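Repro:
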Amino acid sequence: MKRPDPAPPARILIVDDEPDLVELIGLTLKRMGILSVSAGTLEAARRELREGKYAFCLLDLKLPDGDGLDLVEWIDQNTPDTTVAVLTAHASIEVAVRALKLGAFDFLTKPVDLTVLRQLVTSALRAARGQPPSGNPLIGEHPTIQELRSLILRVARSQAPVHIHGETGTGKELVSRLIHANGPRHDRPFVPINCGAIPGELLESELFGYKRGAFTGAVSDQLGLIRSAEGGSLFLDEVAELPLTMQVKLLRFMQEKTIRPLGMPQEIPVDVRIISASHRNLQEAVAQGRFREDLYYRLVVIEMFVPPLRERLGDIAQIAPALVSRLALDRSVTLTPDALSRLQAYDYPGNIRELENILERALTLCDGEVIHGDDIRLRKTERIPVPEGANQNPLPAYLEELERERILQALRESKGNKTAAAQHLGISFRQFRYRLKKLGIE
């Protein structure tokens, strides 16, 4: 039986006008079994990309005939199968962040650390080869959920930091796990960290690890949570709760891609993707001096919003049976129309997490294999006063009318400035634009 021909070696395009650096990178890639071609200008790079197929492009942002950011955008539009990473000086981290927003996979700072280079190339080639989709269990047909599902698949193959904003209980960790599962790091660790649950005095040792004898009680070496995510994804939940001293250390880690465990004299390179989340508005925390602005811009390269359940009550008809099926284990339990109606008439301050608790209680209370309306026990919440004549309107329509009036008020107060109105409402401009479209506000 004839053996299949071996896959051709990967080809990488190095775009840089420094011959010594190009030679160093080329030799490093050759030892990895990777072919490399170099180009010293933007024009030469475009010609190579038009004429040949490259899995990966490593690009300097400062070139003799123009700005490397223009080529990042050109590659995204013309050769989307080519994964691109950028080379930048330490003083130009903000430019690297702009490149990530334009579609770059990752960035590498000069002088180039060869260990970090090898890690980046390995991750980039895995992304270029693509991974089989692992599914996307976000349930619902509301436009915000459809958009969120699409966005998850788009950002999964990037290395850019992602920040997920949403109320408590909306499913921010689920979104972060889907990003990890659908990306090139899917077979590496996913390490979630609740930044608000670790005491401040233990944060540094928990995150960065320590050597034996580094402090009283350090009886053995500890890897630390960041290094335990090597090659995978690090999920920083409730990142707004980090104290300012730890924010400085996190910023340095994100810029240098190295950590120094307590008691260790040298720094250690670590290859992880950062995904963060918070129920707080990070922009407001920056304005109040509780969150570093430079860290904010490093974390919020791609921003995602998970809507509260009260904004998509119609999706409960799909979400509730799925939750019941999971909670009931080997039982086959169904919900009556009356039970679903009761679930859809509640506003869920605790979002999906509260819905899950309600259904778990209902499973305990119900007789047999059917959950009836009387089995649904809802806690009393403070309701918005309903004006006269509003009883004929269904709850979603009433809430939309309240939302419309609040947005129009914000626009009046900001004299039509949409960016200012979004900031006043405490939401991102993307969320604000979606709401305008949803509500038909011109």
